[in-house]
Amino acid sequence: MDSHIYGVSKKTLFFFTLLCLSVYSISALPHQNKTGNSTGTGQMINSNSVLVALLDSHYTELAELVEKALLLQTLEEAVGKHNVTIFAPRNEALERQLDPEFKRFLLEPGNLKSLQTLLLFHIIPLRVGSNDWPGRKSNPTRHTTLCNDHLHLITKNSGEKLVGSAELTRPDDVTRPDGVIHGIERLLIPQSVQEDFNRRRNLRSISAVLPQGAPEFDPRTHRLKKPEPPARAGLVSEGYVLTVLAPNDEAMAKLTTDQLSEPGAPEQIIYYHIIPEYQTEESMYNAVRRFGKIGYDTLRLPHKVVAQEADGSVKFGSGDGSAYLFDPDIYTDGRISVQGIDGVLFPEVEKESTSVKKSVSPVKVATTKPRRGKLMEVACRMLGTFGQDSHFTTCQ
């Protein structure tokens, strides 16, 4: 029997003590707020935030640049402190109308600071709706951006509203409790980024001049030899970034002679598997998860490689000519990335032409007489010397 202390058993007293200790330990844990975060951590971005709306909006080119510039944490902190106004250029302004050399300059790993400054130049830490624009007869209003530069809001006599030199094409396109997104016609470039680009371009033009010898004379034609065109393999040595989609050996072994017989076909296949930007498994998977389908430029202009999410991985192409990312990050050094895929990719135009060829080829095979193998011909010839070839229908 259990001993008692003032009418209470020792076992009951022991369990009561354990219960008190557990309640005290739970109360000592950090309290959580309504959003599920502890008070010691930063605020969680609401799903109704203007930042989430930007990443899921039709401004896909701007959202992709924000992720490449590693600005998500900076923008989360800005949205958590105050309302923001985002001036979002339309996709055509970033994809087609932007100078290719300037875009390449922004995407180089060494120019990350310039890319961040450019994007922060489009964000004001203040909510400015379309109704807050100055009137036609009012002076332009000046606002400080997140990169500590200034933007001027102007209204012309014709009623057009401007942000710097860009026209406001879609006012109040996306509105959220913590901010607003206005669509503009073009990209806003701060003076500091423009000067940095001009400085790099001038230095590159000076350093890119290679010493050349005297022109060579061809004694057969009595003319000067034409210089060879620059090889695309020199892209790596000139500081470009590349992502190579490398098919495995099984996929390369399935290539037919028809696909390789045309002049320049092997080179065109290789160019279609090279993306002139630096991508990793993580960056490509995050992009296809967020945007569904992504079109990557290749060295085989103007064809693009389309990537999408499938079975928890990245799928390139479509239909029977698709390939999956099965051996990721074979080699990555910040400039060159090699990603293993399980198939050889071809542009959509070539897929249609090859399908037409395949549909016609069975008719040709049906009209031709099947050719006997060399081993069978030698065997029939040996049997003919002994007069036994007539016993085999194959030799007749």
TrEMBL record:
Boundaries of every FAS1 domain copy: 46-188, 190-330
Source domain of life: Eukaryota
Gene3D superfamilies in the record: FAS1 domain (2.30.180.10)
Residue ranges the record marks as coiled coil: none
Alphabetized PROSITE patterns for the sequence: FAS1
InterPro entries from the UniProt entry: FAS1_dom_sf, FAS1_domain, FLA15/16/17/18
Residue ranges crossing the lipid bilayer per the database entry: none
The entry's keywords: Signal
Signal peptide: 1-28
Family: Belongs to the fasciclin-like AGP family.
Name of the protein described by the UniProt record: FAS1 domain-containing protein
Source organism: Dovyalis caffra
Classification lineage: Eukaryota, Viridiplantae, Streptophyta, Embryophyta, Tracheophyta
